[in-house]
Automatic annotation (TrEMBL):
Biased composition (Polar residues): 1-15
Annotated spans, Disordered: 1-29
Lineage: Archaea, Methanobacteriati, Methanobacteriota, Stenosarchaea group, Halobacteria
Chief subcellular location: membrane
Organism: Natronorubrum sulfidifaciens JCM 14089
Protein name: Polysaccharide biosynthesis protein
Keywords tagged on the record: Cell membrane, Membrane, Transmembrane, Transmembrane helix
Keyword Cell membrane part of the UniProt annotation: yes
Gene Ontology CC, one term: plasma membrane
Length: 522
């Protein structure tokens, strides 16, 4: 989500005049400017996330870490049912009531949603606690009972956490969402987890860090929201009809169920067929491979409204889509190359040598995520922006179904690589579907000579990186040298093939004027 004023500006075309450039699209500037802000937030969150996992994998065995991953996956899945999707109603109804100066009703929505999800999530937490032993038996992990008993308290906590997030969306105070979600929670979790692991708490240390980090984030978030939205919270309470809230929320809750299942189905299948250490090893490989999402996740919140506001101008939509696709491919491709070539080295250096077993997982997922995010992303931001929400939901079902079927068939045979093939198959399939659908519906495609140059530059970069992997024996040296060789060769190839366009220069100027001066363009 972006600043609505900035987004609106992105859709306004410059006035024509003697000094104006008819090919200059202000949406490109908005995409770069707002994308760079979200990129910084995502980088901070990503770095802290990697640091937490690196900490865990050094202090506990893969089996303990895998057990924790499996338990938190169950919690996150149950939490979707616990809140009934109601927090999503806050950032839909509250802005409307505030726009109509009905603060009492806006407060009523927040109060009613909070009270409802507290009751429903507490009931789900109680049921989960009673079922903890049975779930542990299902996954053939007796220790999972203890993990679920302690983690069950986080179900109502996560419900309030989501209420706070959507409340920040509703009053357009997203910087405080970043404070709560991207800074306070991971920093506190890291510090508490580190302290507990140092004194030898093991699995309980992982659980303690997770619970305390969430609790402190909620406390800080609630305090900041109370201070910043006091004029809203101090208004006289006016309850609203619950029917519209439920009718709006339930369909989104069902969609959320599919998304959560899609994100955790691999862990459930691995936990059912294999030991918990396989879950832990796969989780590390998946995390490293899906790190390629950071560029897409930074541009997507800006890209969708830019497409939505100009959806009737197909030529402009296609122009923006092509720029988006080229930039995602250009930044993500070299990263995918050196991650794939040096997967075992990065896993050994960042985590421990025993996690190098997930190198094939990294290679498969890096290629699949690269393809998928270039052509629309897992959440179908291009299709969403064009208003094809039903197609997005259908694609989501395809993504989940294909992953489930392939993983279920292959995991018993080839282990964690089977889960990776399932995820990769689903990502390639949905990425291809997005390309076909958007071309069939609106005649839009990203394939141009400039796009081909960006993709083609990956060939010499890969060739240059192969000797580094084969001739350097040290994993640490390989991990340091490989990105320099691959990215350096990639940039030189782009320059040699005259791959930079005026739109690239415009984007670069928004990131850094200095970068703009050094960037060759036509």
């Amino acid at each position: 989500m972006t600043d609505p004023d900035s987004t609106a500006t992105g859709g306004t075309q410059p006035e024509s005049g003697p000094d104006s450039d008819p090919d200059h699209d202000e949406g490109v500037s908005t995409l770069a400017k707002q994308g760079s802000i979200t990129f910084v937030g995502n980088v901070v969150k990503g770095v802290l996330g990697f640091a937490i996992v690196m900490l865990m994998t050094r202090f506990v065995s893969p089996s303990v870490y895998g057990l924790f991953v499996l338990a938190t996956s169950v919690i996150l899945f149950m939490q979707v049912f616990a809140n009934l999707g109601l927090p999503l109603a806050i950032d839909y109804f509250v802005p409307q009531y505030l726009a109509d100066d009905e603060r009492g009703k806006a407060k009523g929505v927040i109060v009613q949603v909070t009270a409802t999800v507290l009751i429903t999530s507490s009931l789900v937490a109680f049921v989960l606690a009673l079922s903890a032993a049975s779930i542990g038996e299902f996954f053939q992990e007796p220790s999972m009972r203890v993990a679920l008993l302690f983690l069950s308290v986080t179900i109502p906590m996560l419900a309030i956490y989501n209420v706070l997030l959507t409340s920040y969306y509703s009053i357009k105070k997203l910087q405080y969402r970043v404070l709560m979600r991207d800074l306070v929670r991971p920093i506190v979790r890291f510090a508490v987890t580190a302290g507990l692991l140092l004194v030898g708490f093991g699995l309980l240390g992982l659980i303690g860090g997770y619970v305390v980090g969430l609790f402190v984030a909620i406390t800080v978030g609630a305090a900041v929201f109370t201070y910043k939205a006091w004029d809203l919270l101090s208004a006289e309470l006016e309850l609203v009809a619950p029917g519209p809230l439920v009718r709006y929320s339930l369909p989104l809750a069902m969609t959320s169920v599919v998304f959560v299942l899609m994100g955790h189905v691999d862990y459930f299948i691995l936990g059912f067929f294999l030991e918990s250490d396989n879950v832990g090893i796969y989780r590390v490989g998946y995390m490293l491979g899906s790190g390629l999402m950071i560029i897409f996740n930074s541009l997507s919140p800006v890209f969708k409204p830019l497409i939505a506001e100009t959806r009737d101008d197909i030529d402009l939509v296609e122009q923006r889509f092509r720029i988006m696709a080229r930039w995602i491919a250009a930044i993500t491709l070299p990263v995918a190359i050196f991650l794939s070539l040096g997967a075992s080295s990065y896993l050994a250096v960042l985590y421990t040598p025993q996690y190098a077993e997930a190198s094939a997982v990294v290679v498969l997922l890096a290629g699949a995520f690269l393809f998928n995010v270039t052509f629309g992303g897992p959440d179908g931001s291009l299709l969403q922006g064009m208003g094809y929400s039903r197609i997005v939901f259908a694609n989501t079902l395809v993504l989940f179904g294909s992953n489930l079927v392939v993983s279920f068939a292959l995991v018993p045979i080839i282990g964690i690589e089977g889960a990776a093939i399932g995820s990769a198959t689903a990502l390639f399939l949905v990425g291809g579907l997005t390309l076909v659908e958007i071309y069939y519906l609106d005649g839009i495609h990203p394939f141009t000579r400039d796009f081909a140059k960006v993709v083609g530059a990956g060939v010499p970069a890969t060739i240059a990186g192969v000797p580094v992997v084969y001739f350097l024996e040290s994993d640490t040296i390989t991990a340091g040298v490989l990105p320099v060789v691959v990215v350096g060769t990639y940039l030189l190839t782009l320059i040699a093939t005259d791959a930079f366009t005026d739109a690239d220069a415009q984007m670069a100027a928004e990131f850094s004027p200095t970068l703009r001066k050094w960037l060759p363009s036509r």
